[in-house]
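Worked problem 6 (solution included).
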Amino acid sequence: MIKLNKPQIKQKDIVDDCIDNMRESIKQKRLSESKNEIITVSEQYDILAESGSLLKMASKEKTESGASKEDLIYLYNNKFAKKGQLARKYYDEIILSAPNGKCPQCGLRQVKTLDHYLPKSKYPLLAITPYNLIPCCSDCNRDKLDGLFNSREKETMHPYYDDFDDEVWLKATLIEEDPLAFNFFVFKPDIWTKLKYDRAQNHFEVFKLNDLYKAWAVDSIITDLGGIYRLFQNCGEEIAREEISYRILDVRKINKNAWKAAYYEAINISEWFWKQYLPNYRINL
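Solution. The predicted structure is:
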């Protein structure tokens, strides 16, 4: 939903700071000897992701040097993500990379955690790979869980490698009944391939974005209706619809596929809203 710049953090620095001052010398030795392999896997991830080939990423339970899955996940949980640890600064840097603290997956809620794009339970060597760590809200992180995709079409958007804001694809319809409600959906732009559309659709379903956006839309229409009605009464339909059009433009300057732009557009194109509902709005007060 929101494109992010890739983290400019060296994998070597992350590994070094994660294993610094580890109390368990044997575990530290295994992880230290595995550093080069972790760096190599991180570089492979970047190359494959750039070419849209993450399905080729090998899943390994342990490193060639003997670091286990538990060792690698320990690095993330107890060194990288844990407050007070030396490597926590990298976790915080990635968290803060989301513009205005907004979750890039839903574009709405506040970032609270990091999501492993390829789950660490299946890809433990990527547990502390910065390219695999996405700033995310708690709800999106929970909705995605440890799900794996088995085709390119089933890959959710990757904020570091995908650009889905080249066109407007998020649309909504106004459900023409009282009380007002909305449904949001993925629209296929003419220049998009079917693959890109399928991925957007899958992303939309995985993160349950229709449920999220329509709940916010219902709250918004309750507060917006009074102002729209007064403008309609005082200045007429044409001016009122023009004002809504300006709101759409203003929102899309910040985020082309913001839910609120789709919400305003759904209001604007509903002849029922302007010809039947709004003229009788006072009756519904």
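Discussion: The beta strands are 113-116, 133-136, 170-175, 181-186.
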